[in-house]
Amino acid sequence: RDALAIGGRSLMAAAFLGHVATLSSAASPIEDQLEKWKSRLGAAAKQLGNGKISQLQWQEEMDKVYAETPIADLLKLINFNDLKESMLATDLKDRGELFLDIPVPGVVPAMPNEPDKVLISKLAYVEKGKHIPPHGHSNMVSAFLCVSGDFSVKLFDRLEQDDETMVVRKTVEEKKAGAGTWSSISDYRDNVHWLTANSDNCFLFTCKLIRLEEARKFHGRINIDLRNPEMIGSNTYRAKVITFAESQELY
Predict the structure, then answer these.
(1) pTM for the full model?
(2) Do 63 and 18 touch, CB atoms closer than 8 A?
(3) How are the residues of the chain apportioned to helix, strand and coil, as percentages rounded to the nearest 5?
């Protein structure tokens, strides 16, 4: 789940109860597979946005949706080759990651901003050797699907948090997550993720919904320092909450 799946539906040998699952190969020859996939993707988002299902139920549904993704068809649908060329040509300066808002025809329209409780889709590129630095979220769900390249992935449950520190417990560590692997995050499972690009052409299809709970404050990213944490238990760490600039400097 929230940290990509890996190799043959085993991820850490299901030691983490399927937190990560993987696809066997690209797309099915079934003509309407993409339409069915789009319908399930949109329905899950609508149910979550309307409060019909919980964030955990959305993550469970996204595990199923991403497991059945006709990747080749999805890439054609979003004009991946053109987007890829444009993103690879972009000067990332000191950042190693780039997120681009993309519509998914029939599911996600082109939107000038990020509306509450509505599915938002993006294409993400991470330069080889660079990171999507370790961070958590508040009042947000998201799901990442690797469509190209090879990532290493770490996921953590957030156990406690204050203004200065966050206590997390590692739930998944996978050193080789290739195309067809996926992950999801929410306030209730695997809230913190950390992805590293191990190869060239590392791209992710991502979708998210924000501001789902009226009483919970929204934070797009809560950056933490997991290179210098205090170990306080088995796979459990107290990490300093850091700024975006500090995160970019560290990772």
Answers:
(1) 0.86
(2) yes
(3) 20, 40, 40
